[in-house]
DNA sequence: GTGAGAACAGACAGGTCTGTAGCACTGGAG
DNA sequence: CTCCAGTGCTACAGACCTGTCTGTTCTCAC
């Protein structure tokens, strides 16, 4: 279908869809997905409920779209940072832990959206859960790619440890002192990498 | 019916209260708190709704009681293990990572209840949130007590790192291979402790 | 036996939720 | 100018939710 023009507030512009998704994302993240009804979303977005259901057939689909959006934002930030350290995996990792630690320490930080939504929807076949699971596996995959450039004995284990560390940071914001997260994560990563290099990994 | 020898406690027996709390705990953990209505709880527990509201004034109170129960179970297990290693902090930590890793790998593991509920109820004044926050801080407090027996330069930082690790394990069960969690956690703890002992911690 | 407390059973009130339907408006394409 | 897809607005259906109320039964204590 056309929908190509998409130019400013024209006709079939995607303006309305974007506004719905952005509004829903903010509300979902801040208040929790189940706590936010579609009526609230359409009210805050200033659109008609009909429009919401035309662009997203179901609330569940809207939730999945929310997570996909967050996923894209997250990896967008990741890629932007990664691009600066193409030749230095160690520096790249530190940089990631830097912005992640900073993000975790923000005043209104409410945890990782993927994890939060997975906690709210245990049903394995929920569309949003698939996005969340893909997100977590992608995290480990990317960390493994970094670990493989770090000259450690078992890159996959280091990747697993770093994944746990990062996921842990996402859910531990409550226990951090201000500004504590990033150095804590960096020191931990340093320790894990050092241990992975020294070859005392012969035992089980 | 029988009500099996409702016996001694006879009248004000806590039998009903326990049954409600246990049933609710299972359902809440498995399906999520918001997804489970009180009607389902009373039905599965085989009690009258009046009884639920007599013992727990509110669903929110029932949720808080659920988390308190989980909290007690968790620290009960912790204490049982800790008692075996009173004189060996290193072995105690390994033992904790052992049962935590095992628990995380169970087939129906659905994450830490405290974290899940906190994700479902962002409102800071929700009674269940207070239980959850207390739980997380208690975790760091206990890990700090262990770290202080481990001859590391900055026990508080190690405690923070171990807390992140444990919380991370709770939310990362999806990315673990079967049986992977415990050794991964133990190797990580080993690395963190080693790094905390070597005195290259003079920098910031 | 009698009264009190606890539990059961079921209906109900009042609200919220998702999702749908009907009708009017608008602005660009032909 | 005339279509017409996209949008807004309102009302509604049907389900579900929390919490309350009434009425009945059971068991213990006295």
TrEMBL record, chains A, B:
SUPFAM superfamilies (UniProt xref): Homeodomain-like (SSF46689), Tetracyclin repressor-like, C-terminal domain (SSF48498)
InterPro entries: Homeodomain-like_sf, HTH_TetR, Tet_transcr_reg_TetR-rel_C_sf
Keyword NADP belongs to the record: no
UniProt DNA-binding residue ranges: 37-56
Keywords: DNA-binding, Transcription, Transcription regulation
UniProt superkingdom: Bacteria
Keyword Transcription: yes
UniProt cross-references to PROSITE patterns, sorted A to Z: HTH_TETR_2
Residue ranges occupied by any HTH tetR-type domain in the UniProt entry: 14-74
Alphabetized Pfam families for the sequence: TetR_N (PF00440)
PANTHER family (UniProt xref): HTH-TYPE TRANSCRIPTIONAL REGULATOR YJDC (PTHR47506:SF1), TRANSCRIPTIONAL REGULATORY PROTEIN (PTHR47506)
Name this polypeptide is given: AcrR family transcriptional regulator
Organism from which the protein derives: Sinorhizobium kostiense
